[in-house]
Amino acid sequence: MSESDQPTSGRPNQGGPSPDESAPPAPNPDQRVPDQPGEAAGEASPEPAPKPVPGPTRRRLLRVRRWTVEQMFRRPEHPVRAAVRFIVSLTAALAVAAIAVSVYPYRTTVAKVDIVVSGSVTPEHRGITVDSSLGSLQFRDVTALPIGLHVTPRIDLDAVREATSGGATFTNDFRSQLEDRIPAMVLHFAGAALIGLLIGALIGDLIVDGAISVLANKDPLRAGSRRHRLAATATLVASSTVVALVALTATFGITYRSDWWQRYAVTGLLADIAATPDKLAALDARDAAAADKVRAVLSLQDALTRPPTSTDTPVTAYNVMFISDVHRRDIYNYLQEYIDANDVKLLVNTGDETLVGNTAEMTSSYIDSIRRITATTPMIWIKGNHDSASVARRMAEIPGVTVLDQEVVSAMGLQIYGVGDPRTYGAPGDAGSDDVEVVTRIETEAALSAVENLNRETYFDLLLAHEPIMGDTMATTLGPSVRAIGSGHVHHQNETADLQSSDRDYIRLIEGTTGMGGLLRETGDPMEFSILSVGTNCQYTRIIRYKLADPALPDLTRGETYGNNSAFDVHYFQPQDINAERTCAVEDGIDEAVPASATNLATVQEWSSLQLNDDALATPDEVTPDPVSTADEAGDNAIRDDAGDSTPSEATNPSPSETATP
């Protein structure tokens, strides 16, 4: 066989045309191949215009790009392999960046206080946290990213004593100097994150190469020059880093809250002493050094949580304390300390004063503890499902207590509507049922009945109903006529994010059990109550929500005594649409309660800038209660376990101690 007869597939044609005229001519790369079935191969076709030949520089660039793509994809027919390579590189980049942020703290000195700032990347530690042995200050709602900064002050007592002797001067200096260091702090952690991203992306690429080498028994550098391989690696690392940076930056920009300072929590001994300053004097008498340390940390806390000065922030006219579900626990003497420390001028109690609704539970010492408070701080009270009608009458006999049941009262400039609970614990039939469907039906029917009995144009600054489902139903029905609701019953406060939401017009305040589950509970729920600040223009400006696990702990000198069991959250409200000419003041006092159907009450048109129209009022058929507020009977079941199945008419006094402590 001649050389021209040898198969040519697999190697290029090294000679010219075959001398054998019968052999088919070699394919011409410039000749167009017919693409239609009927088109003859030998038919003449117009010669295409010659393509411009790329220059040397362009040829080199094209060659590098081709090799880069081949190295990243390994084979063009395997895009999955390229995707895996990219995902591994991106994951490794984020992981190493998280480690870099965590292990590379920022250190500085602010107003003679040495501060160490470290990062963390875990969902439970997001936001900004100021840690100390006495407790912590937490700003949780900075961004949705699971990134946290932990600020640890190292306190030199001698230096801080000198600094804090300046009072407000130290606070202002500390905050000013800290703000000056924020750019350097941001640059520090941004640099650590960028270096971590680059190193992590490179590690991820090497991991994939190693896996290919081991699993496929192939050299990852099998194709192309080292220069091309380095170009491919650089491309992958750069693309992974850019994608990570863009994703992180975009998420931060979209979810960042400029008002993050308006929501914070304080835990530990700081929470207790910040809320009741008189305890600091007791601590000073026991341990002056510990007291000085507390003062220093409190000064730092004040510097970090002080709102920025603004003409839009109204002056506080007075504070309102919300309590609920006392369940005959002797807590009023203890609450007096918080009432005095926070200058509370009005108490709002959303019911469940007793365990089983028997007036025998309300001993003389218990009534006296309420009377001592209401002598100077009036209380608005509504009936809960553990309160009988006789308990409501007994509460109404206490001077300074206003009991509302489908009645409206004007209190210090606020128009408040209260509705007693239609159920009674232990009563026969549906009225005493704990079945969720039955409870939902009874509460919804009572709410709609209460709405039908009032003037639809009346405006309510605060609507009180013991069970959340009832308050939500009324507020949903009345629309812009309701500015806020207050409820209890479920023995735990609603989440901070649920207080004020963009998808509804009213503020939703669900209080926990101030009585820690009740008198007969040895280990119950934490003591919860809230303090709402009302501005001189009647805007709700701020709320402090307390959660105290065991307020009777005696040793105030040790922060670990409290740990994270004592805490309070602070939330600043967005202004609501109310008449700018309104004023609220303690001097306005509390008027006599009147039926909700009265026609001389303030209307939506008078006290709100919202327009009341038929579209804003739901009909009973359109009301869908918030599923989150569906009755939670866990508290009732726990009390039944302790108190037995006695009904209010049968119950005997559970013999509360006259000297019981919280």
From TrEMBL:
Signal peptide positions are: none
Entry keyword Transmembrane: yes
GO MF terms held by the record: metal ion binding; UDP-2,3-diacylglucosamine hydrolase activity
Tell me where the transmembrane regions lie: 82-104, 185-208, 229-254
What segments bear the compositional bias annotation Low complexity? 37-46
Q: Which UniProt keywords apply?
A: Hydrolase, Membrane, Metal-binding, Transmembrane, Transmembrane helix
- Enumerate the residue ranges of region (Disordered): 1-59, 617-662
Q: Which GO terms of the cellular component aspect does the record hold?
A: membrane
- Domain Calcineurin-like phosphoesterase residue range list: 319-492
Composition bias, Polar residues: 1-16, 646-662
Pfam families for this protein: Metallophos (PF00149)
In the record, biological process GO terms are: lipid A biosynthetic process
InterPro entries xrefs: Calcineurin-like_PHP, Metallo-depent_PP-like, Metallophosphoesterase_sf
Name of the molecule in the record: Metallophosphoesterase
